[in-house]
Amino acid sequence: MEVANAYVQVGSGKVGNACIRDYDKKYKDQENLLKATETLNRLIQQDSNITKHLKERCDDNKVLFKDLKQNILNETYNECTGSLKNLKDNTKQVINFSEQRRIISNNLIVLAKNLLNNLETKNVLSSYRDYISSFNRRLKGRLDANVWNRAYSAVNKKVETEMANYSGSERDDVSNLKNELDNVHLTLEEYELLILIKYRSICEFHRNRYQTRTEARKKLEDSSFPKDMEVFKNVLDKLFKALDLLDA
Predict the structure, then answer these.
(1) pLDDT at 23
(2) What average pLDDT does this structure show over 122-151?
(3) Exposure winner among 39, 74, 154, 213, fewest CB in 10 A?
């Protein structure tokens, strides 16, 4: 009885309150992480949709500009008025989609950084940084050396400084990089996430023993990632598939 009474007293005193506070904090942290990841996944889906619409509008612009040019050559000036209006309206949509994509891209990096600050996230992802380096080496071989250096520097700068967008002088090189990423079914935003993982690993991760790609891939497949980290598991899975395509 005395032991029971002592347990009740401790549980209802400072120690008990501290335990409750710790539990509440842990629960709130997990809840916040889950919300952040849900937002991250939603932004990735939005980015994919906007990228699709943006490409469609850009393709439309090429057709509309070609029609306008032909009308000018044919001196069908009444048709030119309609062509100009269509081109103007479509260009507004291109600008609108580009701005939405810029905002989403910036938010993706900020949210991903918040998730990577979580210790559990760091420990799970630390095994895969070497394969990001391996992917970069293969990707580098697909591009002109100067283009690669400028594009890679631009991506790292954007990730590290949370820049909203690439500068005008960087866009051509980044566009060339994006074309190579398209060939292995990775988006530029997904590549930025991989660079973010690599960047954080250099700063904070503890180095593990080297694994073969097969071992690491098997480990990834067998791993039960927390729900708030599924976005990273998905992009790492795409990394291994991209490596396979580059080695084919």
Answers:
(1) 39
(2) 86
(3) 74
